[in-house]
Structures are given as C-alpha cells and as structure tokens.
Specification:
The chain is α+β, with helices and mostly antiparallel strands and 383 residues long. It is built from eleven helices and eight strands. It folds into two domains: 1-122 and 262-358, no CATH class; 123-258, no CATH class. It has a three-stranded antiparallel sheet with strand order 1-6-3.
Length: 383
C-alpha cells in the first residue's frame, strides 16, 4: 500500500535537532527565522490553495543549506581575494570576523629566493669550507673534497675566496699598536692608548659599512688578480699557487635550495591552500538584511527543487473520475534556474566590492572631485 505524502500543516515550531547538521540550531535568530522561512516558502509554493507535500523539517533542511551556501560563497571569495596575505599563516583561529590587512609576507618570501641566489639574505643556508692548496696544482676535484667533508647531496659553489688583507685593516691604521704607524703620533699629541680608529666624530654605522664595502668591491672588480672557473665539478684557479695554503669557498646544498617548502615552513598547522584557510560556517545572527533576503530566496529555490523530486514520485494523482498530473518538471527546472541566478548575483555583488574595484572607484572619485575643484575660483583674502 502506497504511503501518503507528508503535507505541510500550515504552521511549524522549530526546536534544535530538526536540521540535518545542526550548524545553526542554537542560534536564536536562526530559530526565529526558521518557522518564518517555512511559512514563506509554503506560501510561495501555493499553500493553502494547494497542498505542499513537504514537512517543516524539509523546509528547515533547505534553510540550513541556504545559510551554509551563502557563507561558502562569501568566505571562498574572501579567501581568493586575500590568499596571498593568508598563505603560510596559522590555521589556529577562524577569520570569520577578522579584517584581513594586506601585507608583504608572501611577496617577501618570493623575494627571499632571489636573495638566496645573490647572497644577500633569503632562507637557504650558505655553508663555508676550505680546500687545501698544493703548490703548482691548479685544478681541484670538488666531488673528492665533498666526500672528505661528509657532505651528502649535491652542492653549488657560490663564492671562492683567497687570503687577502681584510678591508677593515685597510680602512683603519694597519700598524695600530705596532710602534711603526700612527701610534707614535697619538702618543706625541697626548692621546695615550686610544686606537687610531677613534676620531672623536660620531658617524652612523652605515658610513663605516659602506666604506668597507667600497674597498671590497674595488678589490673584486678592479684590482683582483685571482680568478677561477668551475667546469664539470672541477675548480680551476688562476694564477697557479706557488705555495701551500687554504682556498675558502661558500656553497649551498642544492636539495635545500630546491625544496618547495624549505626551513621557513617547517612549522606545522600553516595555511597551504584554500582547503585549510580557517573559516567556519557563518554566524547567522551577524548576517545582515540583504544577506538574509538572499538566503530566503535561495531556500525557496531549494524547496522548489525538493518538492519537484517529491512530486516526481507521484507523477499522477487519482481523483474521482480522473487523474491529475503534477508539475514536478516545472518545479525542478525553475529551481535550477533560480539557484544559478542567485549564485551569479551574489558573486557579482562580491566582485563589485573587491579591494581592486574599491580602489579604482576611489581613484575615479578623487579624480572627479579634483576636476570639480579646479573650476572653483580661489578665495580672495581680505584682512
């Protein structure tokens, strides 16, 4: 015997536990609106002129889905609009009520990769090592040297140094304290044991650093007679050493440089993609009137769709002397169109409020205001 369909009774009384997931059951605003939405949808579906084959629980389920869909669209838009600012941040606290401030964190991380290659920062460690030089030997096998240092994986040599007089020595008096330089002059003028580096004029530290850098750059570009080349993991130096010594190098480990995560991302619980950006379901009481109106309309579209499926089970209903065909196809078609239209409208509204378009409108407003003010004559001041 066929079971008779449930008919909307004309009123409802929401209590927690009547929705499939219970996301908003204990939100008092949701509780209040649930029965209003059920009555609204039933009226729009023809009640009480025609029976609506849906119980109040079905309307509550559609209402819950509509609120969740609204939050999903809004928060996905927020994630897309702010992902560059959110990537690699903590997943600990939800951002539902946060204002996401633009920052340079991700851009700086990208720039650090260039800094690592240039040796001016970054997150890739530069290691130091020394190669024993042998008199009259010009070529040295880096693979063989690497094996003696217990270094695993491939390395990439970044800099090669020879033992040169440090720039700091040439910036200050190289004979300070030896009795052969300006120390004697200091004694003559009564400065005692003061270092010749002290000139009794306060200078910013960056001045000293810039002078030392200039000396080192001059040595590298103009004066250096030392060169090298790396071919097939063989280090060839010029000129040929004429005595034993040490050749110092700086290198990186290729695996560390090429790691897609790197040491900067060793911490756990960081935002890596849109799936773990910390957004929760919306708090219904904080959704404003335009948002709730969208939710009501989307609930109605879902209710139409559900009613269409219900009536699809009973395509024809017998009545005395005839049969009545139900409109399940029309309901499902209308619901599909309305859902797509509402989603499109919401996404357009979100796009219109993107940071990019807001700045463009602000710039246009400032430009228009400037042109208007250009037409206003300057006031004449009378004392």
């Amino acid at each position: 015997m066929a079971q008779n369909p449930i008919i909307y009774p004309g009123s409802s009384s929401f209590i927690p536990g009547q929705t499939p997931f219970g996301f908003y059951d204990y939100d008092t605003n949701f509780q209040t609106d649930a029965d209003k939405v059920a009555s609204f949808c039933a009226s729009r579906l023809g009640f009480p002129t025609v029976d609506v084959e849906m119980g109040s629980g079905s309307f509550y389920a559609c209402f819950e889905e509509a609120v969740t869909t609204y939050g999903n669209e809004v928060y996905l838009y927020q994630i897309r609009n702010n992902f560059l600012n959110l990537e690699a941040t903590s997943t600990g606290s939800a951002h539902n009520q946060d204002v996401i401030n633009p920052n340079l964190g991700n851009i700086i991380r990208i720039a650090e990769n260039y800094g690592s290659e240039a040796g001016s920062g970054g997150t890739t460690t530069w290691y130091s090592g020394s190669i024993p030089l042998t008199s009259s030997v010009q070529e040295y096998d880096l693979n063989a040297w690497k094996d003696t240092q217990d270094i695993t994986g491939s390395i990439e040599v970044k800099q090669v140094f020879y033992q040169n007089t440090p720039a700091i020595v040439r910036y200050f008096d190289p004979y300070a304290g030896t009795g052969y330089g300006s120390q004697q002059l200091l004694d003559v003028f009564g400065f005692g044991n003061y270092s010749p580096a002290i000139n009794f004029l306060l200078m910013p530290i960056y001045y000293d650093v810039s002078v030392i850098q200039a000396i080192e750059l001059n040595d590298t570009i103009r004066k250096s007679a030392f060169t090298f080349e790396l071919v097939n993991n063989k280090l060839r130096i010029f000129p040929i050493p004429n005595q034993e010594g040490q050749l110092f190098i700086q290198y990186i480990k290729v695996d560390e440089r090429n790691s897609p995560t790197g040491s900067a991302f060793a911490a756990q619980n960081l935002v890596t993609d849109i799936s773990n950006v910390p957004y929760e379901n919306p708090t219904y009481q904080y959704i404003n009137a335009p948002g709730r109106y969208w939710i009501f309309e989307y609930t109605l579209a879902l209710a139409k769709e559900l009613l269409g499926y219900v009536r699809g089970k009973y395509q024809q209903v017998p009545i005395p002397g005839a049969e009545v065909s139900l409109n399940q196809g029309d309901l499902i078609s209308a619901a599909t169109t309305e859902k797509a239209s509402l989603i499109e409208k919401l996404r357009n509204d979100l796009d219109e409020n993107s940071r990019k378009l807001q700045l463009q409108r602000k710039a246009e407003e400032a430009d228009a205001m400037g042109k208007t003010l250009d037409q206003v004559p300057l006031p004449i001041y009378i004392a």
